[in-house]
Amino acid sequence: MSNLNEEASIRLLGKITLLLPVLEQNFSMQLEVKKIIDETLYDYEVQSKCTDLVASDIGEKASIYLACKKLEGLSQKTLDNYRLFLIKLDQFFTKPCSTISTMDLRMFLALMGKGKQASTINGYITALKGFFGWLQNEEYIIKNSAAKLKQTKVPRVILQGYKAENLEKLREACKTEKEKCLFELLDSTACRISELDNIKLDDINWQEQSIKVLGKGSKERIAYFSTKAKIHLKAYIGDRISGYLFLSDRGEHKHIKVRALQLIISKIKDRAGIDERVHCHKFRRTQATRLLNQGMRIEGVQGILGHTTPTTTQIYAQLSQENLKNEYRRLVV
Q1: Cβ contacts of residue 138 below 8 Å, gap of 6+?
Q2: Contact at 8 Å (CB) between 119 and 111?
Q3: What angle, rounded to 10 degrees, do the helices at 281-293 and 177-189 form?
Q4: Short-list 70, 71, 72, 65, CA closest to 89
Q5: What's the pLDDT tens digit per position in 3-33?
Q6: How many CB atoms within 10 Å of residue 4?
Q7: What domains appear along the chain, each with residue ranges and CATH number?
Q8: Could you report the per-residue pLDDT of 45-55, keeping only the tens digit for each?
Q9: Distances (CA, A) of 199 to 4, 171, 256, 294, 308
Q10: pTM of this prediction?
């Protein structure tokens, strides 16, 4: 099959995928559709009507790319972020991916990164490297124009956990059993708020004081909760035996959403009357630092947080100066 036949096949598949969203969710069906298109075009020689390539094919290829990423287990939130980014990429360029140069991508980044933080720009660069690397691996393009893009330097800021006094004020500000249950789970499990939102009663092991949670990339892990959390879990659950752990107050057995859980923490913060910034993710940082300072190895903290590498864990957990001093005196004569 000629290059133009292959290009026509890819673009037809992309157009059909955009027209029929069900294909985006089913990569094997996409492959079957492409096979049918290739067989149909086999006896034909496709020719271009114009000599100048002025049409973008990013939209068509992006739909196939996202289907592959979904097959790899990326979360829906990550896929949605990639989709929005690739739409902006498609709107910027009016030519095929194979003709986009490194300088073109730098101009795109200059526009997209105007007024943005270095970490945000690095996210754009990572997305471009991922997309164009995939295009090259799939042999849609010969040269990866994103390969030469360099990450910008990001100033390292040590993010702190909650102050012990403020943590107790937040605990005392909890009124309902739902609030107490949510607070103690955040404080003891170091789970993401989205992971707590998806907990079902069947996921809880009362004897082990553990919960099976589904983390990023659809990776399961075991999270452990404290005795305080166990007490308030039982009080909040009552006589329920199945379904989601956190339910809405407005509808019987209606599953609450992440935003609603975040609002609960916000209300607790208002009652506590503290100046410190309060958000759900900060509980992870607090517990990680606490465990590290109490002697848990970084690999153990990594497992608790569900991180792929210890490098990410080190951003969350910081040894206190007192512990650093004790470690130094223990190891250095």
Answers
A1: none
A2: no
A3: 50
A4: 65
A5: 567 667 777 777 787 777 777 667 677 778 8
A6: 13
A7: 3-137 (no CATH), 164-331 (1.10.443.10)
A8: 776 655 444 57
A9: 50, 22, 11, 28, 21
A10: 0.67
